[in-house]
Design brief:
single chain; 458 residues; alpha/beta; GMP Synthetase, Chain A, domain 3; 4 domains; 6-stranded parallel sheet; 3-stranded mixed sheet; globular
């Protein structure tokens, strides 16, 4: 990709991105995080943007990376490298350019600049992501080798939004790049490819587009669930995938559903998606969520953040159950709240940060009664039987243990609170919850049942 001419107006480029973001973000989010940003200059392929403070820089890079990337792709500016500079540090950065390696500086690589933090060593692995992570590492290990004991091409990773699919996929690309600097990599988001296809059709020539992607060694194809209604885009994607697979090039794909559940997709595409290995990522358990928070606090952007003790991290982890992205957002929220109040991040500060509009309900907390009634309904027993202290038959014992596990996962209840709810000893509750965890590891059907209940209740 040719460099942006020096005379290109930085304000004009930023205006395009800014206008696109305004249509993607809520009014409040746009006004708080994007409006204060100012375009400084455009040098080569680097567009420098001034942000008012470190908090804004952190939020954009960690919470709005995908929105920025999508906006740049749609405006045909994906080749740009955005650099966010904090107001007050500009003079130093003007005289001493940033020498940190940025992936866009390698002409062999086409990655969004905001994805540079997505590396495999930053991915926190838990029981819900072990297979996908192992497969990702295997792809890196076997890249460029003529044969492998197991076909992982394409590697198809699926799961709900915000669980780390894109992180894992881009991490594969980063690791391959590190081991094979000459490898040509392309990150391709489906909606961005749609706009490229539309432009090629308007010129009545799709051949250059096909050659562009057929020339890569690794294709990272993000969010293929969006292909459903894109007939011509599906056709072009198929030609690219067919060529790459025939020539032994590696493909990594992400989606919110497994191939067979993708609606509106041609069967031949589904077949190609299933040729290699399909691996899912589920929401992380409590222990993994705490580990994710601790890993996040080790990143450079958090080095100057105040220390957060395990009690507060556990409190945050109990509320960030739906996705890793939400979990990171909650952590940022607590830190910002503490900074705003000029105090250290305590449990009281965290509780204050999570107060709802009414001021009395914690975000993410599920009422105990709702959990119990959902479990009772699922196991076809009465709400009263579920809460009975006596009755150790399996028809009551197992549902009760599951209810305790979900109460610990989804509510604000402590072990003591749950023990009181079931009129049991604290240690009995702990043993019951541990029993559920152990059975989930050994019994895949039971694991699916509990996760289905968890998603239903939450």
């Amino acid at each position: 990709m040719d460099a942006v001419p020096m005379e290109k107006d930085a304000q004009g480029l930023w205006s395009l991105i800014r206008k696109n973001l305004e249509g993607r973000l809520s009014s409040g989010s746009f006004q708080e995080w994007v409006s204060p940003c100012i375009a400084l200059r455009c040098e080569g392929n680097t567009l420098s943007i001034q942000v008012p403070n470190a908090s804004t820089k952190l939020w954009i890079e960690q919470q709005l990376a995908e929105e920025f990337n999508d906006a740049m792709v749609q405006e045909d500016l994906a080749h740009l490298n955005l650099v966010f500079q904090i107001s007050g540090s500009l003079q130093v950065q003007t005289t001493q350019p940033n020498t940190t390696p940025i992936i866009e500086e390698n002409p062999q690589i086409s990655f969004p600049s905001l994805f540079s933090r997505y590396t495999l060593d930053r991915f926190v692995v838990g029981p819900s992501s072990q297979l996908a992570f192992a497969a990702a590492n295997s792809v890196v290990e076997h890249f460029g080798k003529s044969s492998s004991s197991f076909n992982m091409n394409p590697l198809f990773i699926y799961g709900s939004s915000g669980l780390g699919k894109t992180h894992l996929m881009v991490g594969v690309g980063q690791a391959i790049r590190d081991k094979n600097p000459s490898a040509k990599l392309h990150y391709l988001k489906v909606d961005g490819f749609f706009h490229e296809v539309t432009a090629a059709i308007s010129k009545r020539n799709t051949e250059p587009l096909r050659k562009k992607y057929q020339g890569c060694d690794v294709l990272l194809l993000d969010d293929v669930q969006a292909l459903g209604k894109m007939e011509r885009t599906q056709e072009e994607i198929f030609y690219v995938l067919e060529y790459l697979l025939q020539h032994g090039k590696q493909i990594v794909i992400t989606s919110d559903k497994p191939p067979q559940q993708l609606e509106g997709l041609h069967e031949r595409l589904k077949t190609r998606f299933k040729w290699g290995l399909t691996a899912d990522i589920q929401p992380p358990d409590f222990e993994t969520r705490v580990a994710i928070l601790k890993k996040k606090l080790e990143e450079p952007d958090f080095l100057e953040a105040p220390r957060i003790d395990d009690e507060v991290l556990g409190f945050i982890a109990h509320r960030g159950k739906s996705s890793v992205r939400d979990l990171e957002g909650l952590l940022n929220r607590v830190i910002f709240q503490a900074q705003f109040m000029g105090v250290s991040p305590s449990l009281e500060i965290a509780q204050s940060a999570f107060q709802g509009q009414n001021g009395d309900e914690l975000l993410g907390a599920v009422p105990m009664e709702r959990i119990l009634r959902s479990v009772a309904e699922s196991f076809h027993i009465s709400y009263g039987d579920l809460k009975k202290k006596r009755g150790r038959e399996a028809s009551i014992l197992v549902p009760r243990q599951v209810a305790m596990y979900l109460a610990r996962e989804l509510s604000v209840a402590s072990y003591s609170d749950i023990a009181k709810e079931f009129d049991m000893h604290h240690s009995t509750v702990m043993n019951a919850i541990d029993s559920v965890k152990q059975r989930m590891k050994k019994d895949s059907d039971f694991h699916k049942l509990v996760h289905a209940l968890l998603n239903t209740v939450y």
